[in-house]
Amino acid sequence: MGFNHPTPSTTNPPSTDPPSTEGGRRALELLRQWPGEHRVAVGLSGGVDSSLAAALLQEAQWSVTGVTLWLMKGRGACCSDGLVDAAGVCEQLGAPHHILDARQTFQQEVMDPLVEGYGQGVTPLPCSRCNRHVKMALLLDWAEREMGISRLATGHYARLRRHPDSGRMELLRGRDRQKDQSYFLYDLPQEQLEHLVFPLGELRKAETRAEAQRHGLRTAAKPESQDLCLVERHGSMAAFLETHLPPRPGKIVLRDGTVVGSHNGVQHFTIGQRRGLGVAWHEPLHVVKLDGAMNHVVVAPRSEAMRRDCVVAAINWVSIPPAAAPMEVQVQVRYRSEPVTARLSPNGATQARLVFETPQFSITPGQAAVFYGEDVLLGGGLIQRAMD
């Protein structure tokens, strides 16, 4: 399942200059104090974040093995820029590099559910599913089975710590709140968290660039990808969906059923959307519901798009055991949304109702509602429906 990239014959030693940033110094100190064996597989995407994660680990005297997932881009094992840059960084560091063919798993675990969800009027969150079922699962399994390595590092901006009393691994926001990626990691189980390392959790993005420059990494100035990896070659999500879902003309309606327009498929809309509806009305209208069964896009004024509560299912409790009683939490309902106060009332271990302190706009089925207690990620699940 894996392809070995030749171990380089010409290597660059780790930087002997001290870290130039406060975050870099904190990261190195924590990595040097990390308990247990210091052999690690590093998931390399070919970007600056994962590249620096590998460089910092090596600087902290860890034994680094790079591995890159071949998900879907390119015509072969080493055709995309990411694969080439990942191999190049390993060559710079003098570390072995491997390519793991994950195309079939990625198709089954990410692409198929994504297309199915959009077709049903749901807006899926592919990154969290990919992190659990593809990236972490495949990389951890491969590292242990093929290399005898039980630890995996990635370039995510998040932090881990062990609770001193329960022994449970806690997942925390990254220091850089603008880059924090804990939201996308909410679905990771304890069995995976036990084996993960996030070297960049202490750094801000500007510090990452500076430390990558200090190490002379070829990716130090590489621009960030702004698109999901699975739609990158199509140019947009709309173009991606057009290649996977046939047109399905339907009606755009008000909440009372009044027809105000037409559409070419519910997959092209998302909750809260205002632009691009093609509807002339006496006030701005927003998408408030996608009815896949009726093939209707339901629209309403913004005031009618606000919701006080929602039902969340498939909850994964991360830093604490499953809640047994109502509790107050800070909730993010989208990656870029600000956390808001809500009352969480559990219904069993994997379902709950959230009642927000103030009504929220654009509560979207298929997206994640992630619960925090200050910087600690308590758990999260998928929004099933907003309550009318």
Characterise this structure.
25% of the residues lie in helices and 28% in strands. It is built from eight helices and 18 strands. Helix 2 packs across helix 7 and helix 4 (103-119) runs antiparallel to helix 5 (126-147).
Short description:
It is built from 8 helices and 18 strands.
Key features of this structure:
six-stranded mixed β-sheet; 25% helix; six-stranded antiparallel β-barrel; disordered N terminus; 388 residues; alpha+beta
* Assembly form of the protein: single chain
Strand order of the largest sheet: 1-4-3-2-5-8
Radius of gyration: 22 Å
Q: Structural class given helices, strands, pairing?
A: alpha+beta
Task: Note poorly predicted spans.
Answer: 1-11, 74-79
Q: Gap between N and C termini, in Å?
A: 48 Å
Helix fraction, binned, reads 25-40%
Estimate the strand proportion.
25-35%
Main pleated-sheet profile: 6 strands, mixed
Mean pLDDT value: 91
Report the strand count.
18
Q: From N to C, what is the helix and strand string? A: EHEHEHEHHEEEHEHHEEEEEEEEEE
Number of helices: 8
Q: Quick one: overall form?
A: globular
Helix and strand arrangement:
Blueprint: E1 2-5, H1 22-33, E2 39-43, H2 48-59, E3 63-70, H3 81-93, E4 97-101, H4 103-119, H5 126-147, E5 152-153, E6 158-162, E7 169-173, H6 190-193, E8 196-197, H7 205-214, H8 237-244, E9 250-254, E10 259-263, E11 286-291, E12 296-300, E13 306-317, E14 327-332, E15 340-346, E16 352-361, E17 368-373, E18 376-386
Parallel strand pairs: 2-3, 2-5, 3-4, 5-8, 9-12
Antiparallel strand pairs: 1-4, 6-7, 7-18, 9-10, 11-12, 13-16, 13-18, 14-15, 14-17, 15-16, 17-18
Helix pairs in contact: 2-3, 2-7, 4-5
